[in-house]
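User: I've been trying to design a sequence by hand for this structure and keep getting stuck. Would you show me what you'd pick, starting by listing the structure so we're on the same page?

Assistant: Good idea, let's start from the same input. This is the structure you sent:
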């Protein structure tokens, strides 16, 4: 959507599954999930800098349908 509040350069305007964020920049993205929502299966997002893992740049979220609530993530012991 934007980089530091400005329209992105042409190379960043199309669909991406990876977004490079310059040091100190803020990038807003929009995602569309067309498949069925499963409240028990989370998606993951992360930064490729391992030092950021503890700073909240790695996490999970679930996609739910209108009026639906997040479910229970299955226990994947040993993974």
């Amino acid at each position: 959507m934007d980089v530091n509040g400005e329209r992105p350069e042409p190379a960043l305007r199309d669909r991406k599954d990876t977004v490079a964020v310059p040091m100190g920049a803020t990038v807003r993205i929009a995602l569309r999930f067309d498949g069925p929502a499963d409240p028990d299966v989370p998606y993951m997002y992360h930064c490729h800098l391992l030092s950021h893992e503890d700073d909240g740049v790695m996490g999970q979220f679930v996609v739910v349908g209108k009026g639906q609530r997040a479910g229970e993530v299955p226990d994947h012991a040993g993974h």
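That's my pick for every position. To get oriented when you compare it with your attempt: The mean pLDDT is 81. Residues 44 and 72 are 15 Å apart (CA to CA).
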